[in-house]
Design goal:
The complex is a heterodimer of chains A (151) and B (89).
Chain A: H1 9-19, E1 23-29, H2 32-44, E2 51-55, H3 65-75, E3 81-85, H4 91-105, E4 110-114, H5 118-126, H6 132-146
Parallel strand pairs in A: 1-2, 1-3, 3-4
Helix pairs in contact in A: 2-5, 3-4, 5-6
Chain B: E1 3-7, H1 16-27, E2 32-37, E3 40-43, H2 47-51, E4 60-66, H3 70-82
Antiparallel strand pairs in B: 1-4, 2-3, 2-4
The chains are: A alpha/beta (151), B alpha+beta (89).
Amino acid sequence: MAKEYIVGAEDSLVKQANTATVAILVMAHAPLATALKEVAEHVFGEAIDITTIDVLPGACAVDSSDALVARLTDLDRGAGVLVLTDLPGASPANICVQAAQRLNESAIDCAVITGVNASMVVRVLSYRKQPLEVLAQQAVEGARQTVTRLN
Amino acid sequence: MPQIELIVSNKLGLHARAAAKLTKTASQFACEIFITKEARRVNAKSIMGVMMLAAGKDTTVTIEAEGGDADQALQEIKALFDDKFGEQD
């Protein structure tokens, strides 16, 4: 970021927006979201900058829809938000899709990917500096490639 | 393309954490870096690619690098292997 201060103020803002990091949220049935973050921290051996939401049994995910939109909006640093969720058609995934739509209407890019697994999380963290669309593609490909029989 | 052969000498092989260290080191360089085990050649900057090599202890791998900082990259990667990825056996 230090280089950004060499250019003019307007250019600086544009460049910061272009170089901002995509925010990552993992939202899944408890305890998967937190567990996946812990797996990533184990692999990389350091604290990982992703946000997790574990949806507890009995929680009505739909009721937290507004809170999710606010959270995602808050997480965005100008490069958009990548949301990774576990089961397609389940409440966490459904409200993520609704929230993403509301964010997109507010001109905040938000991509929702389902089928999150440890490979997907590790993969997106490796490609963290890529634009949201590339990151979303990497998430899907990374997860797919590693679901395979080993023997 | 400059290349070196290295032996995986740490007890757990190129497991997740070691793969993370390798890809982190490789990613510091602008050159293209590949790691090959037997017939499988992957981008050394891709953590899942490296992990899926499933290179255990005593496996020989070939590291190739192409670009301006290739020699330095190979040197750093060799040091990482020699250091057993910082792991105590």
